[in-house]
Specification:
alpha/beta; about 25% strand; Rossmann fold; globular; single chain; about 270 residues
Length: about 270
């Protein structure tokens, strides 16, 4: 299938990925809520340096997957390893340490409305690194703001920012701890097409500059093709197809084709 008719389409450039090292490895993951079977046997590997896009319908379990990976939700069955450690079998202290190596970009940006941009960025830094000097804190804040192209917003309040700017500041706040893994939850949701392009470009810039491995939860196929080294579709609680964008969507499967048609056929 060809998405070239969409004016906002960018194809993902090749990146250096170590397919010998899985930073996240999931086998046989199952999770239900009451009688609702959400994840029914998920197998997945995220490799060092890779951007992996997870697609799926609303309610298919995409966000549940991220919460299980971060240890916020316990699975009913299966194994989830992050950096070789099984998330649900380590002590709380070790889990907290593991989380400092992961950055979370939430759909609503999760900024504190009562804090300036500077204070929002300082918050995770001073909470996790107690012995930093004021100069080191300032340098870290200025560096991540430069990375997301918003140095001029340092003294602004979140209410003064656009939706795209809030999204960028949210990403900056995760980057300030230099995470090895980034987890993006619907990074382009609610944004206009031009801002979506900017966020997609930023996700790729973060991958290159910070050498991150990322899972990107989205239903936006432009985001998927622009940012994903691989794409995985969550269907009926498990990953039915995993591969390049073109490999995944080169199908007449009636469960998959509507994803493409909705995004690109007008």
């Amino acid at each position: 299938m060809d998405g070239g008719g969409n004016g906002y389409m960018m194809k993902k450039e090749k990146t250096t990925i170590d397919y010998k090292e899985a930073v996240i490895s999931i086998r046989g993951l199952k999770k239900a809520f009451d009688n609702n079977q959400v994840l029914t046997g998920v197998d997945l590997d995220l490799y060092r340096g890779e951007n992996l896009v997870v697609l799926g319908r609303s309610g298919s379990g995409k966000s549940v997957l991220i919460k299980v990976i971060s240890g916020l939700i316990r699975p009913d069955a299966g194994e989830v390893k992050v950096f070789g450690k099984e998330v649900n079998r380590i002590r709380e202290h070790d889990l907290q340490e593991l989380r400092t190596r992961m950055g979370f970009s939430f759909q609503n940006s999760a900024l504190y409305d009562s804090m300036t941009v500077r204070k929002n960025l300082e918050f995770p830094l001073v909470r996790n690194k107690k012995n930093l000097t004021r100069k080191e804190i300032n340098t870290s804040v200025e560096t991540v703001l430069e990375a997301v192209g918003l140095e001029q917003t340092i003294n602004q309040m979140p209410a003064e920012l656009s939706g795209g700017q809030r999204k960028r500041i949210g990403i900056a706040r995760t980057l300030i701890l230099n995470p090895e893994v980034m987890l993006y939850d619907e990074p382009t949701a609610g944004l206009d097409p031009i801002t979506c392009i900017e966020i997609n470009s930023l996700i790729n810039e973060v991958q290159q500059r910070y050498k991150t491995s990322s899972i990107i939860i989205t239903h936006d196929l432009t985001c998927a093709k622009s940012t994903g080294d691989r794409v995985a579709i969550l269907l009926d609680g498990k990953f039915d197809r995993i591969g390049s964008f073109d490999e995944v969507f080169n199908t007449d499967d009636v469960r998959i084709k509507p994803f493409f048609d909705y995004n690109f056929i007008k």
